[in-house]
Amino acid sequence: MSPRRLMTVSVVAALLTIGLKTAAWWITGSVGLLSDAMESFVNLAAALFGLWMVTVAARPADDDHPFGHHKAEYFSSGFEGILILGAAVAIIWAALPRLWHPQPLEQLGWGLGLSVASSVVNGVLAAVMLRASRLHRSIALEADAKHLLTDVWTSAGVLIGLLLVGATGWLWLDAVIAIGVALNI
Fold it and tell me: In which element (H, E) is residue 37 found?
């Protein structure tokens, strides 16, 4: 599959995971799941920018770029890093009020199920993109794939944390999980 097609799939996957994770947050009220959903918006922005950059990189050499446009992909990986930092700040901003005033969580089973489904989508896509990044020598595909893998691991952390909230009743742990997600990404 071409880098452009994979980045298009990444955009579609980001939209799907935004929907799944937002629904998970909405039905549970978990700020941990909200942080996971917010991080998926970064996935979408990064995938859109990555799609643009692999499209530019595929252009043939011209008078202004005698060696081609392939270095455009480096902008994609840098942009993704900046987006990740912005998402981390936004997640902490959203989680701090819940740390001071914990709220009860609802329907954790459904919320966690939706989160797991989105992680499966991201994990499968990341594996395919990593293989393709090596084949096409594409830093944009590699950056997006590694970001998706980070998303899978942070979602797993949220899942484990919310299971602990359910088992212990420690509602403040939900906010701590969200802040942990922010610091991890």
Answer: helix 31-57
Which pTM does this prediction carry? 0.81
| Distance from C-alpha of 128 to C-alpha of 114, rounded to nearest angstrom | 22
* pLDDT tens-digit profile, the chain (185 residues): 888 899 899 999 999 999 999 999 999 999 889 888 988 888 898 889 888 877 776 666 666 655 555 565 666 667 777 877 888 888 888 889 988 999 888 898 999 999 999 999 999 999 999 999 999 988 888 988 998 998 898 888 889 889 999 899 999 998 888 888 788 77
Question: Which residue type sits at 4?
Answer: R
Contact at 8 Å (CB) between 47 and 7?
Answer: yes
Q: Which residues of 31-51 are buried (b: 16+ CB within 10 A; e: fewer)?
A: bbbbbbbbbbbbbbbbbbbbb
36, 154 Cβ separation under 8 angstroms? yes
The amino acid that residue 183 corresponds to is L
